[in-house]
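Lecture 7 notes: from sequence to structure.

We start with a single chain of 219 residues. Read the sequence below before looking at the structure.
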Amino acid sequence: MKIKAIITGATGMVGKSVLLACLDSELVESVLIINRKSVGIDHPKMKEIIHADFLNLTAIKEELKGYDACFFCMGVSSVGMNEETYTKLTFDITNHFVNTLFEINPEMVFNYVSGIGSDSSEQSRTMWARVKGKTENIVLNKGFKDAYAFRLGMLVPEKGVKMSLVYKIFKPLFPLFRLFNSVTTSSKIGKAMIHSVLLPQQLKHLKNSDMNELAAKVI
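Now the structure, written as tokens:
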């Protein structure tokens, strides 16, 4: 089986990582990316939709049909944001995608890129952890064929993935970071996303070591 996947956030580091892995994988037939601005890639397996309002998908709803998976990689930093704004950009947008795609195809796999430390009890004193946990819950409990929360920690960017300033500072240490199972890489998170569609996992909250293990499985 070859999968057809929707990817959001492909202009960011995580989404770009997943996109490049999908384009390289023989297990992926086609990819639809939805962005506010172009990712700047031309590939025969890829279709790109530029869409401004992620809280209203009515105009593109028909184009979202027929996909096996959604790899939801959009995300913003909570630094400098109040809870209302962060909730709108994190929970509300994801919730709208979840509801829209579930209506179209409840038999798809929905993967949400969360973060290490997210709190699914929604009781944390840390604002972002509560909001991320709340978002995980609506994804995992909606009723899709399958769904996962990728609680991403340290990610080592590889070829074609733009690094932030912080990552550039630590770039000389990347070879060392790769030795730790608590660290994952661009290619590994991409492979883990793909493999999760084809190899259902009992564990639904995946940390970096779980992603690495899933990525290493042979299909």
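Confidence is low (pLDDT under 50) at residues 176-180. Keep this in mind for problem set 3.
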